[in-house]
Hints:
InterPro entries: PXL2A/B/C (IPR032801), Thioredoxin-like_sf (IPR036249). By secondary structure, the protein is of the alpha/beta class. Helices cover about 30% and strands about 15% of the residues. Strands 5-4-3-6-7 form a five-stranded mixed beta sheet. The protein has a two-stranded antiparallel ribbon with strand order 1-2. The longest helix has 13 residues, at about 155-165.
Amino acid sequence: MYENQKFFEKKAAESSEFVIDLDNDQSQENLSPQKLVEIGDCFVYDEAGNRFTMNQLWSEFKTIFVFVRSFLCFTSKEYIEDLALIQREKLKEAQVRLVVIGCAHWKHIRNFRKLTKYPYLIFCDTDYDIYNRLGFHKNKDVGRPGDSPHVKSTNFSGYFSSLYRAVTSSSSFDYQGDLQQQGGSLIVSPGPVVHYYHADATGRDHTPINTLLAKVGMKPILFNHNNQSEKQILNL
Length: 236
C-alpha cells in the first residue's frame, strides 16, 4: 500500500555523523548525537500495526517528518490537508520522502488518511517515545486565528468540527492522541544528518509547508485559500 515499499527493504544506516542546521531558537540539547541515535532506534507503527524504526525511514533519502497533535485536532487535520497537495512527481524529482507521524493508536491512521486525502506515509508513535525524546511541548494551546497559513477554521468552528468527528467516529471513542501533546517538524537525511528541527509551541505554530520545502530544495506552493496573510507569512 505504501509508496516505494522497497524503501524499507534495506537495513538502517550504521553511520552516526551528526550535522545540524537549526533555523530557529530551539535547543540543540533535544538533538544531541546520542539523542539522535536513540531516536533512530525508536519504533513507529503503520496502519496495519507493522513496526518500523526511525532509522529505516531516513536511511536512504532526505526525509521530512511532520509530527502532529491528536488526529481529532482541527489544526492537525487542516495542516495535513495542505501537506497532501504536494505533488508526488515533485517529491520524486527532489528525492525527498514525506512522513507524517501521529501520537494516536495506529488503528486511527486509515480514517485520518481518508479524511485528509493524504497519500503518503503515516505512522504513529503510540508510546510518545519520539515526541518525548524530541522535547515536544505539552499544552492545550491551539494558537490564534491567523497564526498559520494552513489552518482556516476559527477556534470555535474548529472545536465544533473536532467534537463532531469524535462523536461520529466509527471506532470506539477516544481522543486519538493526547490533547495536550504538541507536534513539530524534523528533516533528516542519511548519515544521519539533521537539516531542520522545530517544536511547535501551539497547534498553529507548525512550520509553514513552504519553509519545509525550501529546506529540501523544492519550490513553494501557492495554496488556494484566497488568503493574503498566507502570502505574507510564506513571503510569496
